[in-house]
Amino acid sequence: MSLHRITLKPGADLDGFRRAVRWLIAEEMAPQHVLWSSDDSPSLFGEDEHGAASPISLPKGVARLIEACVCHRDEERYALLYQLIWRVLNGERDLLEIASDPLVHRIDMMARAIRRDLHKMHAFVRFRRMHGELERFAAWFEPDHYILEAAAPFFIDRFHSLDWTIITPIGSMRWNRKNLTFGPPGNREDAPASDEFEEGWRGYYESVFNPARVNPTAMRAEMPKKYWRNLPEAAAIPGLIQSATQRVDAMIEQEATMPLKRTPERALEAMRDQEPKTLKELNAIIAKAGPLVPGATQAVFGEGPVHADIMFVGEQPGDQEDLQGRPFVGPAGKLLTKAMNEVGISREQAYLTNAVKHFKFEQRGHRRIHSKPTAGEVKHYRPWLMKELELVRPKLVVALGATALLALTGKATPITRSRGRARFGTYEGYITVHPSYLLRLPDEATKREAYEAFLNDLRRIHDLSQADLDTGELPLAAE
Ligand code: URA
């Protein structure tokens, strides 16, 4: 019998492979009579050439291996998979259970390599704002295998409301908040090398880096150097490794001289060590740290459903919040809740938190007068807020006032200049005034006007979160 040549599209041609397999099985063509190749020629394996054959029923495990292994770069992948299918359909239905079988072993190794590659892509892609484009983001990534299509669902799910493109040497893909399209390969230079959030990432990484746990070999195995180039935080790694020994020595010395004092630095280290995976774990670390400035009764944590659509970020708890241990329950919180009710945002379904988790005040007689947190204090709490954001993963983040804005962006910006829609890293955002600003206004007329403007902001916030939910589309700015 002569050899039958099957030519599939370059890359991971799952559809072409499926069609070919149906036809080959219908023709009872044994693997040794089939020659597999991939190229761009127009005579690819298609229904027009061979007619449509009926689908084949395969055990789930085999079907999953096929989906993974067609992504592998190994030129023999289709031949190996066809051998597997042939044997499963010809009396060896439980073949996958024989781990020592050389074919099963080889295919299993291929599937593992694909899983690893996908994991790396999920972890190491960093979107950056495209130059001159407010709303478009791009990232460069170098996968080892043909995994673009397999990786797409993760990025669509994670960055659904973002217009993003991932450029790689094997192809590119773009999500425009509605549709996914695949395009030609590109170069590193096609994606922006940096953007204004770079500093924020680097600062966050530096603050959670634990010198006592440095293991450069393990770091390189987990994060091979080729990925470092794309990570803003990676620029900090060589310096952090170099200074690790000194920092560990300093830590040991510090512990020897002040073993009982619970400093926030120690709590940050606890966060690095424990890597909190839930809000409960994160809150335990914050509680343990205690206030940066003495006086607060307790830490006031964020409150609301863990994956709320909207996350409101305020400044710091006030007197009532400090006593009750809940955010936004004092006068400013009551005003916020009233305004939310008026526009149809349910407080129970939103997540409310603060940039700073402890009340800072000046004692005047019996009264505790709110004292604004300094930029340094905001910075101190920032890694916790970033972690909280990562755990809640809201669709929309609302900065209430300048302190929240500073905490979310790392930059001091006046609210009047930035009020309205915003983006905080990869999060859709909105900037508005803090409700306590409304309470401080001098006369009733100004208060009413400012409250109306605040309601308008909340209406937009409500619309944005809804639009995001239902259609994936964001309405155009209407200010
Ligand atoms: N102001 C805030 O920023 N947060 C609160 O929890 C209360 C008042």
Total number of strands: 14
Annotated CATH topology of the largest domain = Uracil-DNA Glycosylase, subunit E
Write out the distinct hetero groups bound to the structure.
uracil
Name the shape in a single word. Answer: elongated
Tally of separate domains: 4
Q: How much is the average pLDDT? A: 85
Q: Name the beta content range.
A: 5-15%
Topology (SSEs and partners):
Elements: E1 4-8, H1 14-26, E2 34-38, H2 47-50, H3 60-69, H4 77-89, H5 102-124, E3 128-129, E4 136-140, H6 148-158, E5 163-168, E6 171-175, E7 180-183, H7 198-208, H8 216-222, H9 225-228, H10 237-242, H11 244-257, H12 264-274, H13 279-289, E8 310-314, H14 319-324, H15 331-343, E9 351-354, E10 361-364, E11 367-370, H16 375-392, E12 396-400, H17 402-409, H18 415-418, E13 420-424, E14 427-432, H19 435-440, H20 444-470
Parallel strand pairs: 1-2, 4-5, 8-9, 8-12, 12-14
Antiparallel strand pairs: 3-4, 5-6, 6-7, 10-11, 13-14
Helix pairs in contact: 3-4, 12-13, 15-20, 16-17
The structure holds uracil.
The site of uracil (URA) has 13 residues, from helix 15.
Brief sketch in words of this structure:
By secondary structure, the chain is an alpha/beta fold.
Descriptive labels:
single chain; 479 residues; alpha/beta; 4 domains; five-stranded mixed β-sheet; 20 helices; 14 strands; disordered C terminus; binds uracil
Question: Would you kindly provide a written description of the structure presented here, covering whatever features stand out?
Answer:
The chain has 479 residues and is of the alpha/beta class. It has four domains: 4-119, no CATH class; 125-190, no CATH class; 198-244, no CATH class; 265-473, Uracil-DNA glycosylase-like domain (Uracil-DNA Glycosylase, subunit E, 3-Layer(aba) Sandwich), CATH 3.40.470. The chain is built from 20 helices and 14 strands. The chain has helices at 14-26, 47-50, 60-69, 77-89, 102-124, 148-158, 198-208, 216-222, 225-228, 237-242, 244-257, 264-274, 279-289, 319-324, 331-343, 375-392, 402-409, 415-418, 435-440, 444-470, and strands at residues 4-8, 34-38, 128-129, 136-140, 163-168, 171-175, 180-183, 310-314, 351-354, 361-364, 367-370, 396-400, 420-424, 427-432. Helix 12 (264-274) packs antiparallel against helix 13 (279-289) and helix 15 (331-343) crosses helix 20 (444-470). Bound molecules: uracil. Uracil binds at residues 314-318, 321, 327-328, 330, 332-333, 354, 436.
